Amino acid sequence: MHEMSITQSMVEICLANASGRRVTDVVLEIGELSGVVPDSIEFCFEACTKGTLLEGAKLTMEIVPALARCGSCGREAPVKTHFDPCPHCGGFGLALLKGEELRVKELELL
Hints:
This protein has 110 residues and is of the alpha+beta class. It has 2 helices and 6 strands, in the order αβαβββββ.
């Protein structure tokens, strides 16, 4: 389960930015096409934060919808996979603009 190592890395990022203060809330942005399973991150979060300044922190995950631009017609459209055709012209080879994010967006500290 790669979500465990992702969650461990996320906790390390939070601790590095908390400057020794207790973390009460963590907000993550997770893109729809990031390949990360939010439920697995949530499951791993408690185990990874045990005994740290993040223990007991509330985890909020904001899912970022995938959006792509068509190289043929130049229009933007939501997509559900990396291989969707353009819904406007049927072209392929869409350039993903967002939807692969995985970042710590916010920390609330005491």
